[in-house]
């Protein structure tokens, strides 16, 4: 499987004082100076679809740990009656790399958990052997994954790490 990192244009919209979305700003237009450079950074909040799986994979000559999970990133809008209604969403495979972070995600994040993820979109390409058809899929390499407190019944803290003694 070939992995290709790619930049994706981001649609921008104007908003009024109440936060309601207005007209679309063109991809080559900018709202302010900092938005001229496009990035493939993704930020989203959603629900974990299955229990995360911890894997050890070979990257080059080095073994690395990755936690793989699937997240449904939902979108809500005002329903006109003072409440919210789901207005769509999409599934995205999320990878959390690093021995410490991957293990923590596998241990602490459960199916149904509400998470906020920040990371970089990437594209996977492959060919179906039977048909020769080329397929593509987006996935997210997470830089940060935050667990929402809304669905937690309790939280326990780890003991504080001792600072190494200074050597004089």
Short synopsis of the structure:
Helix content is 6%, strand content 51%. With 168 residues, the protein is mainly beta. The strands form two sheets. Strands 4-6-7-9-8 form a five-stranded mixed beta barrel. It has a two-stranded antiparallel sheet with strand order 2-3.
Characterization of the model:
By secondary structure, the chain is mainly beta. It has a single domain, classed as OB fold (Dihydrolipoamide Acetyltransferase, E2P), CATH 2.40.50. The strands form 2 sheets. It has a 5-stranded mixed beta barrel with strand order 4-6-7-9-8. A two-stranded antiparallel sheet has the order 2-3.
Report the count of strand segments: 9
Strand content: over 45%
For the termini, the CA-CA separation is 53 Å
- The CATH topology comes to OB fold (Dihydrolipoamide Acetyltransferase, E2P)
Shape: flat
Number of domains: 1
Largest sheet: 5 strands, mixed, barrel
CATH superfamily: Nucleic acid-binding proteins
Query: Order of strands across the widest beta sheet?
Result: 4-6-7-9-8
Mean pLDDT: 78
How many individual helices?
1
Secondary-structure content class: mainly beta
Helix content: under 10%
């Amino acid at each position: 499987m070939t992995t290709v990192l790619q930049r994706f244009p981001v649609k921008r919209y104007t908003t009024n004082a109440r936060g309601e979305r207005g007209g679309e700003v063109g991809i080559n237009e900018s709202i302010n100076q900092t938005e001229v450079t496009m990035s493939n950074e993704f930020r989203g909040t959603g629900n974990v679809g299955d229990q995360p799986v911890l894997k050890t994979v070979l990257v080059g000559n080095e073994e690395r740990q990755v936690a793989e999970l699937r997240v449904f990133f939902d979108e809500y809008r005002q329903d006109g009656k003072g409440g919210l209604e789901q207005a769509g969403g999409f599934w995205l495979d999320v990878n959390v790399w690093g021995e410490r972070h991957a293990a923590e995600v596998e241990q602490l994040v459960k199916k149904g958990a509400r998470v906020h993820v920040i990371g970089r979109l990437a594209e996977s390409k492959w060919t179906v052997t039977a048909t020769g058809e080329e397929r593509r899929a987006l996935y997210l390499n997470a830089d940060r994954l935050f667990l929402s407190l809304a669905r937690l019944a309790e939280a326990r803290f780890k003991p504080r790490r001792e600072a190494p003694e200074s050597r004089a």
